[in-house]
Amino acid sequence: MIFLFDLDGTIVDSAQGIINGLLYAFNKSGDEIPEKGDLKKFIGPPFMDTFTKEFGFSKDKSKYLIELFREYYFEEGQLESEPYEGMKELLEIVSSKYKLAVATSKPEVQAVEILKNHGLDEYFHFIGGATLDNSRIKKHDVIEYVLDNLDVNSRENTFMIGDRYPDIVGASMSGLRSIGVLWGYGTFEELQFHKADYIEESVDGLKDRILSF
């Protein structure tokens, strides 16, 4: 069995750093700054999709905002995160039984740094994420990249775990089963609508679910 974990909203609560980075980008660009509560719902999907589809910006403007966001995030934002309560214990237990990896739409270099900062990188066989040039940002593409690096033979025994719809949709596109989690930034309705195979309310519930396979 192999379990792929999303990062933001699944392993770590990174809302503070991401929201601060977005506020920095909007402030520096001179655009109207959205309410913090509105920004939180955009955590998860690639920023290129959020800026073009949700805010209606052009691709060039979106790239500029992403560059501004990264100015803040590389210096401060990636330090503004904390593992969810019980997550370290979950990873310690399940990594002794199954192969674990990370599949995140966050740039891979940032994901690796965040997990190292929290002492969680040792539990994963591979940490895969997006590229800084946006050539790999969709969750499906990240999942395929991670599967290639893990040399996965049987996808029916591989799960994607995440809190938002790209995790569930990406898993389905790659022929994986999915486990949605409710302590992140998505909702039960979102995960149910996109047909998550399982939905867990707590870290302990996820641990029990994984160990039941």
TrEMBL record:
GO molecular function, one term: hydrolase activity
GO cellular component: cytosol
UniProt keyword terms in alphabetical order: Hydrolase
A Pfam family recorded for this sequence: HAD_2
UniProt key word Hydrolase: yes
Keyword Acyltransferase: no
Name this protein carries in UniProt: HAD family hydrolase
